[in-house]
Amino acid sequence: MTSHRLPTGGRLDRSRRVEFSFDGKALHGHPGDTLASALLANGQRLMARSFKYHRPRGVITAGSAEPNALMTIGREGRTEPNTRATMAELYQWLEANSQNRWPSLDQDIGALNGLLSRFLGAGFYYKTFMWPASFWEKVYEPIIRRAAGLGRATTLQDPDRYEKTWAHCDLLVIGGGAAGLAAALTAARAGASVVLADEGMELGGGMLSDPASWPQLAEILAELATLGVRLLPRTTVFGWYDGNVFGAVERVQKHLAVPSPDAPIERLWRIAARQAVLASGAEERPMVFAGNDIPGIMTASATASYLHRQAVAPGKRTAILTQGPAGFTLAAQMEALGLEVAALVSLGNGPAWQGKAPLIRGIPGKAIGGKSLKSLQIEGGPRIEADAIAMSGGFSPVIHLACHRGARPVWSDARHAFLAPSEQDGLLIAGAAAGLSGHAACLGDGAARAAAALARIGLRAEPAFGPAPEDAVAQAPLGELGKTKAKKFVDYQNDVHAKDLTLAAAEGYADAELAKRYTTSGMATDQGKLGNINAAAILAKARGTTIAAVGLTTFRPFYTPVSFGALAGTSRGHDFQPTRLSPLHGWAKTLGAEFVETGLWLRSAWFPRAGETGWRQSVDREVLTVRRAAGLCDVSTLGKIEIFGTDAAEFLNRIYCNGFAKLPVGRARYGLMLREDGFIYDDGTTSRLATDHFYMTTTTALAAGVMTHLEFCAQALWPDLDVRIASATDQWAQMAIAGPMARQILQRIVEADLSNEAFPFMAAREVPLKGGIMGRLFRISFSGELAYELAVPAGYGEAVADAIMAAGAPEGICAYGAEALAVLRIEKGHVTHAEINGTVVPADLGMGKMVSPVKPDFIGKHLLHREGLTDPQRPQLVGVVPLDPATPLRTGSHVLAKGAAATLENDQGYLTSTAHSPHLGHSIALALVAGGSQRHGEEVVVWDGLNDAAIPARLTSPVFIDPKNEKLHA
Amino acid sequence: MASLIPCPHCGPRPKEEFTVRGAVLPRPAADAPVEEWQAHVYLRENPRGDYAEHWHHSGGCRRWLVVKRNTATHAVHSVTDAAEGRP
């Protein structure tokens, strides 16, 4: 392996060595190298195996369009497959590995696919794997999937963090080449706020490959910095979206050996720009000739970039193929550096040539070589010994972003290229992206475009550079070259060659979009950046029409691949969504609670005590303690909404299906909230604390939904009502104190008479607590026991809970969690969203009489009485008990008539909630069963398909304890 | 959809702060025939072109807004408070 690094030159820091490895081989480069340039400098031209034929491939570009040199870099959780070596900056101890090869890059068994290539042409999958149909899933797809793809993603956790941010500016400049720099300078001098983003590691674009322009580049960059322009190198603007918002990803630390934990590895920008200038440059077109993929062959601009930026020579003897003047310029530069140019092959009109290399007028016939180029056969001409080829087939403006919002590329006969509409709302195109050539012309155009863009938003700017002539004439795309039938690659990344496209055309898929799908040309990470123009030329010839008529496939975001990490930002793992903690969380934790996730909330589920070996033991104890003495449960997660206004009562009257207008001050009422289609939306108690002040509670699950619903009703439906609504869920710590001893315990901390006469069932009012704070006390019960709910300002929650626990110690009060709460409410036949599941109306739950027959209007009134919603055979709430008390019932089991087969037709309903009732000593369930309210006492079968069980059971009343509500009113 | 929505109360804000409910439909009168209610609840136009929708500035001022926009061009013509112009 020989070094191709020139002894001098380049934008490298030669004083520092950067060690790295490729396929385990230790190599070194310098700061300023990309992985691709460092590999080339080390003589490592073979960098990859191609996707389909496993052909040896080297690097073909020096930028983001690179289709070949894809490798896996990094290790462990930082392993990143399919990284373009041209975009990866070298850092100390970088590990790179080639892909899609076995056992090694050099000796790859998969290359046998090349021998089968006559069977692997366009449409191969579609034709070959048609029959038998059953083979597709079991045989073909697994095999194809194993063979497909390049790198392998790691399954380890990504150790780095990512972030998202916004930027707002007068002018966004996309691309930091001559046009972009001039645009940014023009705008910044005029006082505009400017963001300049460029995908490269250094700003300068094409100027970086032209040492003569380096002093000017340095001057411009210095002035931009002093003018406060936000310079974003390593930042790819990947999409243009509605509202002139651009998406960009900044690779903040991808180039560092040890990323700092104090900064993100990548940052996703959303840039809201009043105006933008697209100065994304142009892509050099490869030439389509036999063997055009042999390592050693690259574009002329890539050759120039490696030569000038990293002082890497493409080879010992370089043949230059050029359609326009670009190759002549490169040839002269190489000879000036003392490099040997084997031949300068001109396919069109070039300028006069005075160099040493022989000038040949002709076209390439065939490149010869295996893992490295050996020679080039000129069609009908000489064979040139060369180990490198630099090819220039003209330029295609990079117009992707300008077409992301629906604009179609338009063919320009003058520019021999597809151009985007040059003036769109919010976006102008400048420089090489508009088809211009030469730094001077691009500087002038960028300056003029920036001034024009700012004029659109009323800012005056003086162009920083004047107009200047271009340095080249545009060249037409060449299409396929040479007569040989050998493979001439159009799309390197997908191994699509010219014959695939002519075959597609012959088989009726000549439309650009169809040909893409039939051949895969223009797919994958490079999205046809290099190949599409040649594909269009080949299809045009095959169809006997023009390139303009063939057109290009649609450009869509993203311009280049964006990591999932950047798109996810901070929303991953624990931070995927917020965690809400109750004001009593610390209290529950101190008591050793086990917690359960309920939506965003962590709720205390049960409170294990020493000696208890399973959750059921704890829950049974908690339930029995509540039934016999008292318990305290955190119910702070319930939605709490304050409703104020002179029309608050009328508002609630329209919101709930039952009446609220006449609810007295100091009383609570259970309410059912319907949807406009008549089905129950949510339930809860609402208390009237003053004539114009109500306190509503909702279920935990729908707290946010109910708030939104109330706001909609108040603002959009009835803005004439005087009502104001505020969410107070987080402001109040709320606890249920339930059980026969609840009153006497509570009385010890409340400075108000809690006797049944003074504070009866459904009383609700503010009460002073001992110690001086005010609380809101409600005599309501979810458990079926004598019970209260006490709300105190959130900050006092834990202190009040501790006080109640201490006060109740003589009675043996216990903390109980969400599990015991669920058992208690099932025993009492109270419903939750397990029953209120969007398919039930009040009558289904036995609450039909709650629905006000007199109110003229409320949400849900008008469709509630439709046929079907009044059918007596609708599923209705019932209780279910097993005939054998030892048999547990399981939620989700279906109810069948005795002796009926388990079929859909025989299904009579299902169990919505089940629990072991420690009070009754057996399993109980709530169920929605057809006509269930009239079937209490009937024997049925509970069919549990998951466990293949058919359990004899009886339908009962859904109220298993205290059917006469004596406990409630005690 | 437009990336920035001009909230009449908060100014231009990212669309992620908003929640879309659907078409702006006047609620039928309380004594309207059931067919009218049926249509109100279940039937929706799906126009290609101008459309008025209720949007909630759920991550901002929590006001309900009427957003008039074009479903084909994504242009937002106007954003007003839902209570505006109502009794």
UniProtKB/TrEMBL annotation, chain A:
Record bears the keyword Flavoprotein: no
SoxA A3 domain location: 486-569
Molecular function, one GO term: sarcosine oxidase activity
Domain Aminomethyltransferase C-terminal: 876-962
One GO term of the biological process aspect: tetrahydrofolate metabolic process
Keywords, in A-Z order: Oxidoreductase
Alphabetized PANTHER family for the sequence: AMINOMETHYLTRANSFERASE, AMINOMETHYLTRANSFERASE, MITOCHONDRIAL
Keyword Oxidoreductase included in the entry's annotation: yes
Domain GCVT N-terminal stretches: 584-852
FAD/NAD(P)-binding domain mapped to chain residues: 170-342
Coiled coil: none
Protein name (record): Sarcosine oxidase subunit alpha family protein
Family: Belongs to the GcvT family.
Family annotation (InterPro entries): 2Fe-2S-bd_N, FAD/NAD-bd_sf, FAD/NAD-binding_dom, GcvT/YgfZ/DmdA, GcvT/YgfZ_C, GcvT_C, GCVT_N, Sarcosine_oxidase_asu
From TrEMBL, chain B:
Coiled-coil ranges per UniProt: none
UniProt xrefs under Gene3D superfamilies: Folate-binding superfamily (3.30.2270.10)
Gene Ontology biological process terms from the UniProt entry: tetrahydrofolate metabolic process
Classification via Pfam families: SoxD
Protein origin, superkingdom: Bacteria
GO function terms (MF aspect): sarcosine oxidase activity
Record-linked InterPro entries: SoxD, SoxD_sf
Protein name (Swiss-Prot/TrEMBL): Sarcosine oxidase subunit delta
Organism of derivation: Frigidibacter albus
